[in-house]
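Hey,
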Amino acid sequence: MTKGLFITFEGVDGAGKSTQLNYAVNYLRDRKRDLVQTREPGGTPFSEQLRNMMLGATTPLDSDTEVLLMFAARKEHIARVIKPALDSGVLVICDRFTDATFAYQGGGSGVDPSRIEILEHWVQGTLQPDLTLFFDLPIEIAQRRMSHRAKDRFESETIDFHERVRQAYLDRAKKDPARVKVIDSSKSKSQIRLLVQNELDQICS
């Protein structure tokens, strides 16, 4: 049996990642692709509990604690959802994955990337996305787009925090351009959809 494809969606907060992910899922289902849609942190009952704890925390968490919790949730997610789906030949679409840990806890909170890499190797082994779409947008524009919606703990961070997150994502894309494709989210929704469709068509053909 052919192994399934693993596609992840990443983006700065306010860049429209979730909208484009839902479009991608519908686009692929219309083409009769068997897929699993999931998210991080989350994806399993246990991991969703950790998500609620992290995003809903009313007092700051130590940045190392955040990293450890993220990978605890991720290990369960991989074991219960991602790996079984891929092993059965199913396409997995995931809203955020390990790139987000490097961006938010690494870039944003200043955790040494080498420490994240140790956990990445331990928890994931050789598992990496086949394709990552990173939706990029200048932070000042992204913040304006989010001005009328309720924000979680990470979305409520400072402008400087989000600038560091964005730069960490761009650094990841520069390091691995074959996997991480940068999508300019300043374009119109229809233009972005065409870019997403093109990337999906290439990898899913």
